Amino acid sequence: MNEARDRETALIRASRAQLVVMVLAGLREIWAHKFRSLLTMLGIILGVSSLVAMSALVSGMEKGAREALIAIGGLEKVRVEPQDLPKEQRHLADQAAGITLNDVRALQASAPLVTRISPEMRLPATFSANGKTFRPWNCTGVWPVALELSEHVVEHGRMFNELDDEMARSVCVIGTATRDELWGSPEKAGREIIPVGETVFINGVPFTIIGMFKHYESEQERKTRELAAAEAGGNANPRVARNRGYNRRPGNFVFYLKNATVYVPLNTVWMKFRSGMTLTAQQQARESRGGFGAPSAPGDPRLSSLELRLSGIDRLPEALQQARNVLMTTHKGIEDFSFRTQEDWAEQINTFIRNARLSGGLIAGISLLVGGIGIMNIMLASISERVREIGIRKSVGASTFDIFTQILVEAVVIAILGGLAGLLASFALVRALGSISPTENAPIVSAGALLVAFAFSALVGVLAGLIPALKAARLNPIQALRYE
Amino acid sequence: MALVELRQVSKIYRLGDEEIRALDAVDLDIEEGEFISIIGPSGSGKSTLMHILGCLDSPTHGTIRLDGMMIEKATTRQLAAIRNRKIGFVFQFFNLLPKLNVLQNVELPMIYSGIGGEERKRRAMASLEAVDLANRSRHRPSQLSGGQQQRAAIARALVNDPRIIFADEPTGNLDSHTGEAILGLFRRLSREGRTIVLVTHDPEIAAVTPRRIEIRDGKVALKADPRLSGAERASA
């Protein structure tokens, strides 16, 4: 009993000693053919570093997308938008009321899971001031609550209040994109420009700018800008300033759109543009389509959408159902509205990330495979050079298994060395990719990705070593000894 | 019981339709402590016999018993273990690994018997001392003379304390003076009680051993052997 255990531990100790000797022999073999080994490892180095770099790029994009998602209000935000009636309700089209302030009041009264409601009336608007014109992406009549719902921060001046809305005052709060277009960006001008108090003409109607949002940007964008500013400060060269126009790099369009937002009091939009006085061509087109004078309460303006904030993501389905029930009542069962959640968007992001990861992984996997083929090739060449050595080893008592393990260990040692070098190379590659990457999201190297890439390189070594090891192990010792 | 017993051992190769009997029903006993030479011209089958005796090859027919073990039934793994622990080989071309130094070459068999590093080094040095080569332990084989290389090979053959040593033309690649020295070393080892089988084509070299077996056309030729074993006499 005891003796058997002693023998067993002795065996384990012996095989461990043997493994150390084999690894050393493998290293010696690699050292003896430095250039050849380096070329062989290059395949693995490229494979591993591209695997890490790919994963870092995708992680960077993922982070950027999540930032953008939070910037537009997070998952708890839900939009109610008008939609075409379902087929079976088409005949009720003339009774469809659309989304109105009635809905807002009904939701406020009877949907406790909806914590904030912001009605929106979009205004296709052309801004002119300072001799220039600009069509912001989003000019909307809202209540002051919109500020909170869309995660806007007023940095200069103030947001309009309930009183401004009540009195339908001609005031607006603009984003930095409008400022950049009409008055110029601070980078170009070299000084901060705050057009609060200026007059801007919206579709020809004079408005006073009472506030401006802060400049929204991704973390990466901010870093780049600060770096540019620091450099510019160093050599006083304004050339490095970033262009903030339409020709900006893609990837952070969400932040651009957010900057191109203008808020006007809801009531003002209604009074000045919707009550049938000053109609623009677009508004006429819309009204002929939607039927503005449809049978709703007189004077109740039709809204372009509602923004809702729900009490929490975990109760999202219940809250949606509650809001739906209320709206079904006010719309007399006519389903001329639909809910759009950010979940769809988050889902799209996830799909995109998954696809990017899959295709990137596939490409990196193929280059690792090619690296593996390189190892296999060099091991086959190596064993045909070393037939005699294998014969000698067999004659002094190396078993088939010993030879097999020796060749396999050599292949794995090459792969692991290549893998380690690849990990080092990946940092350089990530840096290089970061400066030419298609998005402005900094690549993120994760420990997990490093580990996976390294494990893959070891696995490739094992797979590539199998066939040469088998071939070597099967050599007939007599023929191997005679081999010249 | 003899250390090695061959009974009706045949090795048959097929080349197309032709059947080549490299060994034809050989009976042979080797006693413990014997110093014996196997002699024969090239193509006589003496190398095949040595390969079979040395567990590098297995016979087509017949039985072999080495140190009480039936070799013809052993697996390749068991054969490797037998080569490792019970047999030492000395070759004409020394067969040292050029990338290892002398000490590492001598350690090689012990790596495959799983002996730890310290013990390996100690025994390899002892073995090198036995062949007067301890002062060359850090040299590469290519830095040694032929005689020194062959002594290193003998040290490697001795290091696992084998039951039997096979030397295949051990002086074939050496000048006569160095060859004499190597044969002297074998004689000394024989006096110390080692069992040694010398394979050669040269009758002069075979003359140093007390017992000689001549192989011709795959058969043991009787008259070259003055001390026939019982089995051989029976088959005569």
Features:
heterodimer; A: 484 residues; alpha+beta; 12-stranded mixed beta sheet; 12 strands; B: 236 residues; alpha/beta; 6-stranded mixed beta sheet; 35% helix
Describe this structure in words.
The complex is a heterodimer of chains A (484) and B (236). Helix content of chain A is 58%, strand content 13%. Chain A is an alpha+beta fold. In chain A, strands 1, 2, 3, 4, 5, 6, 7, 8, 9, 10, 11 and 12 form a twelve-stranded mixed sheet that branches. In chain A, helix 2 packs across helix 15 and helix 15 (400-436) runs antiparallel to helix 16 (447-473). The two termini of chain A are 49 Å apart. Chain B starts with a strand and ends with a helix. In chain B, the strands form two sheets. A six-stranded mixed sheet of chain B has the order 6-7-8-3-9-10, sandwiched between helices. In chain B, strands 2-1-4-5 form a four-stranded antiparallel sheet. Chain B contains eight helices and ten strands. Chain B has helices at residues 46-53, 76-86, 102-112, 117-130, 146-158, 176-191, 203-206, 230-235, and strands at 4-15, 18-30, 35-39, 61-66, 69-70, 87-90, 164-168, 196-200, 211-216, 219-221. Chain B has 236 residues and is of the alpha/beta class.
